[in-house]
Write a structure and sequence with these properties.
7-stranded mixed beta sheet, 14 helices, alpha/beta, binds pyridoxal-5'-phosphate, 4-stranded antiparallel beta sheet
Amino acid sequence: MPRLREIPPTAGLPLRPGDLRPGRADLARRLAAQLGTPPLQVECSGSAALWLCLRVLHQRQPQRRVVVVPAYTCPLVAIAVHQAGLQLRLCELRPGHWDMDPHALAAACGRDTLAVLPTHLGGRVADVDTAAAIAADAGAYVIEDAAQALGATDRGASVGLRGDAGFFSLAAGKGLSIFEGGLLLTRDPALRDALREASARWIHRRVAWESRRCLELLGLAMLYRPRPLVLAYGHRLRKALRRGDALDAVGDRFAATLALHRVGRWRQAVGARAAARLPDWLDAQRRQARSRVARLRQIDGLHVFDDPPGAEGTWPVLMLRLPDERRRDAVLTRLWGAGLGVSRMFIHALTDYAYLADRVPRQQTPAAREFASCTLTLSNSPWFDDIAFEQVADTIERVLRDRVAR
Ligand SMILES: *Cc1c(COP(=O)(O)O)cnc(C)c1O
């Protein structure tokens, strides 16, 4: 039977036709007002924002060139560090968790360390205070990778403000999207000025890139619905799965260099109009996630990641850890490709991507590798209705109960 609907793997805020009208609207100002942050700086991607920030910080501390990142994170982070002329060092994860292990972090930081990147993975709020204390001992900066956590708060304030700087992503599928975009923030006014000046100096208008992004944004606005997504996303996903190409199935293969250009006024206006719906959207996401986390917690052997006390993350996905790779894969065999929004975050620990071998050190990071092999994600899209969700929860429950599938 042909598939009629496809749940997107993450919950992106859908655009409306009215968002697309010509004109101006100030994306950075609207979001800063909503999130209660100091002024935000728009860049052309989250990774471009990171690249810019690293270059500015490196100018302040030219003798330091190592950037410490979680051993399981987005491949674009490795590409940005490399493009900034800096050296990557991986920090092993806490066992069974996505956040950096404090002992490993202390061991990874030293006099050569420029920056540490605590990462709010999947909308969950990372332990920035611990990372910041360790970074401070080494004299390193803290950049919060909040690419997947626009709207998340920690003790009442937006994430991204505990470290020296932070960035959000506005890429397709990451909550609010202008197809590709990023936002930089810092509570330090001098650093904010330096970031603005650097952006004006180093990042230029590039009409070809911006035109392409405008078309891609129109495409996203038209296709990001359950029916068109069958062809626009699901068909390619299932083809990649048939080939056994997990990297293509999640879109983990990125170009070797980041595009760097200014974001045009129209895309910013589209984002600003959609952003007016962001607070309600985030609330609805939290409500849906709350009840689903409670349901999934009833499944023996399944771990559902949540936030530490005082933190309120965002919920583009629910991140789940299964007892082992065999059972994780048994769930994926049944559900990845079923059009139900079941997917994986990143396929590998950073050190295991063959195509990144020239920019990622060969380090032993078994906890990161285990995290990659035992976890999966459930979409938290509103199109993922209760009936479909129960079907997914029931399948996971049966796999874990029956010890099926070998
Ligand atoms: C997506 C992502 C990035 C990069 O953001 P882009 O806007 O896609 O460049 C960085 N870090 C994490 C954790 C991400 O998920």
